[in-house]
Amino acid sequence: MKLAAPERVEVRIPRRAEFVRLVRMAACTLAAQLDFTYDVMKDIELAVGEACTNAVEHVADETCDEILVRFTIDGEQLAVEVFDRGQGFDPSATEAMVVDGETMGGLGLIVIQQVMDEVDIKCDAETGTCVRMIKHRVRE
Q1: pLDDT of residue 33
Q2: pLDDT at position 100 over 80
Q3: CA 75 – CA 70 distance, rounded (Å)
Q4: What CATH number has the domain bearing residue 117?
Q5: What is the span of the domain harbouring residue 32?
Q6: pLDDT at 43
């Protein structure tokens, strides 16, 4: 896909687990149109799913009933931003939580950081949380 200018696609879903699959499918479809390899497409799909699942599971504020996912596509990269209006968290304090030798949580952000090229998390008590992920296209 050749683009003269960045294109944006936005998907708004209810903050419920059953809608995360819709966003994962959109991510995979957009990645395929950018000619990412199958493995990279699946990495992008996984990262987007993890970010949305975190928004579903970890936002305590019941008035936060929607997740916005913004895909920005250009010839060089696919950027994905996942927004929720939750209370936010301290991104520097995210680690896997281990209880009695079993991992209990905290792996979502670690997975995202492993499969994406760039990850930036911004939290604000007033505006919520934005997880921004970028996957660069490899030029041949």
Answers
A1: 87
A2: no
A3: 17
A4: 3.30.565.10
A5: 8-136
A6: 97
CA neighbor of 71 nearest in space, from 33, 40, 15: 33
The mean predicted confidence, pLDDT, of the chain is 84
3-state secondary structure of 132: strand
58-84 pLDDT, tens digit per residue, is 776 666 789 999 999 988 899 999 998
DSSP H or E stretch at residue 26? helix 20-33
3-class SS of residue 48: helix
DSSP strand pairing (97-99 vs 118-124): unpaired
52 near 73, Cβ under 8 Å? no
Place of tokens 């499918």: 25
Cβ atoms of 107 and 96 closer than 8 Å: yes
CA distance 94 to 111: 12
As given in the structure block, the two tokens for residue 78 are: 């696919």
With respect to residue 31, please indicate whether it lies within any of the assigned structural domains: yes
**pTM for this one?**
0.82
The count of structural domains within the chain is 1
**In the block, which residue shows the tokens 């949305």?**
52
Average pLDDT over residues 116-131: 89
